[in-house]
Amino acid sequence: MRIGELSERTGTPRRLLRYYEEQGLIVPARCANGYRDYDERLVDRVVQIRGLLDAGLPTRIIKQILPCLDKPRVIHFPDATPEMLATLQGELDRMNDRITCLTRNRDAIEEYLDVVRSGERSAS
Amino acid sequence: MRIGELSERTGTPRRLLRYYEEQGLIVPARCANGYRDYDERLVDRVVQIRGLLDAGLPTRIIKQILPCLDKPRVIHFPDATPEMLATLQGELDRMNDRITCLTRNRDAIEEYLDVVRSGERSAS
DNA sequence: TCGAACCATCACATAGATGTGAAGGTCAAA
DNA sequence: TTTGACCTTCACATCTATGTGATGGTTCGA
Predict the structure, then answer these.
(1) b/e map of A54-69 (b: 16 or more CB within 10 Å)?
(2) pTM for the full predicted model
């Protein structure tokens, strides 16, 4: 598919699809006329990229994470260097921190909303 | 305590402590000489702010979330406007999205690391 | 009283993600 | 064949969080 369709299906500005490509996150094929040609699977991938970006990960890290998510994962691991694995482990730790922080705050907000909503009628 | 101590205890550059204040996230008292005077409780608060920032929330949103976390929560809810509650609910939803995304990807990375590490010796 | 180590404000710079628009090529339908 | 809706690259602008440094006041110990 071309960039316009991918843009619509993922809710992502074309500008950003080109940006993600520039950062090496996605690699579309090219048609004879130079138009980008996106594989169907890139729909999910783009959504995932946006999710990670929104969760605070920079493109540089996302680029390293994405290969872990490919389905026939087995193929990749010969090229995993030790420091690459250490980086991944570090990012995994940071992701856990983020999850912990978000969960704690989400719970607090939820509780707050519960209290406010239940007390709405009887407030002084 | 003064800004230097808070900076050290939270691992946050002074510059950013002033920035968070500028954004209305923390409100230190002032000594007679103009120095900022931080309450003990701001240590936790700053750590929390940094966690949320790292998880992708902008200061504008964090500012709205922080009042939900105060311990005697009860005091606040008379001033909660409906659209304020809607905003909070929206942010809660987004936080859940982030948690889901992070968790999914964390699990994938974890599994990847397991596979790579266990296959390290026997790789082709 | 002097110097070191704090503090203050202000300002300018950077980096990353994103917005916006110009200038021009491709293609299909009227 | 022309028009409109795509696409291309390029460039400059914006916003947010951050880095860095200038300039100057305060405090305290040597």
Answers:
(1) bbbbebebbbebbbbb
(2) 0.92
Determine if strand C comes within 7 Å of the CB of A59.
Answer: yes
**What confidence tens digit (pLDDT) does each residue in B6-15 have?**
999 999 999 9
- In the A/B pair of chains, how many CB contacts fall below 8 A? 126
Residue B30 main-chain phi, psi, to 5 deg: -125, 135
For A22, other C-beta atoms within 10 Å of its C-beta total: 10
Binary contact (B113, A78; C-beta < 8 A) = no
Which bases on strand C have an atom closer than 7 Å to a protein beta carbon?
6-11, 16-21, 26-27
Residues of A in contact with B56 (CB under 8 A): 53-56
Q: pLDDT tens-digit profile of A85-115?
A: 999 999 999 999 999 999 999 999 999 999 8
Residue B75 binned pLDDT confidence (cut-offs 50, 70, 90): low
A63 touches strand D (CB under 7 A): no
Residues A87, A93, A98, CA angle at the centre, nearest 5°? 125
Encode pLDDT of A33-62 as tens digits: 999 999 999 999 999 999 999 999 999 999
B108:A69 CB<8 A = yes
Q: Do A113 and B69 touch (CB under 8 A)?
A: no
Give the other-Cβ count within 10 Å of B77's Cβ: 19
